[in-house]
Predict the structure.
Amino acid sequence: EIVLTQSPGTLSLSPGERATLSCRASQSVTSSYLAWYQQKPGQAPRLLIFSASSRATGIPDRFSGSGSGTDFALTISRLEPEDFAVYYCQQYASSLTFGGGTKVQIK
Amino acid sequence: QVQLVQSGTEVKKPGASVTVSCKASGNTFTRYYMHWVRQAPGQGLEWMGMINPSGGSTNYAQKFQGRVTMTRDTSASTVYMELSSLRSDDTAVYYCARGPTAYWYFDLWGRGTLVTVSS
């Protein structure tokens, strides 16, 4: 099973700042089969990024994904008030597993 | 607009079974795989398995094999997830989620169904 480790656990930033979230895999995620989701309290997750760097339909271009192999990142170029949430990475190269999440909170 | 509409909150006793349904609106029911993901209170996301609504084939996470059954009713555009031998640590929000057939990520989610297991 591929284990995904997300860091940091919590990120405290101000609106307008840049956020960089990390997702590290215990073994290589072939073909960059990695997705990112955003989840707000009381809501279902929402797909942001698939195939490591492809934005889902309707996702603003301030969200970008990068990486390959075992190291991936989600970057939010300028945080908007609605971006404060929990973010999960998920690999689908070998079965399917999620990372533990990163909470982006207002500083 | 395509939506996934899930059944309502359930309260069950330990040892019982629960069935959660997920109805897809629109006419794309057999074009996507349907997955089930759960989230315990304050915890992360956990994949349980998937069903191909077209042929009915399933793939369950090893953790749940023997305890979970996923079925579908194509005439009702609905998938079902039954979890048996419930324990208190099965208390969670259960989500259905749609994904493309070739790649197992999720582009559409239901709103979730809270299942509480308590004596």
About this structure: The two ends of chain A are 35 Å apart (CA to CA). Chain A touches chain B at residues 33, 35, 37, 43-47, 50-51, 56-57, 88, 90, 92, 95-101 (CB under 8 Å).
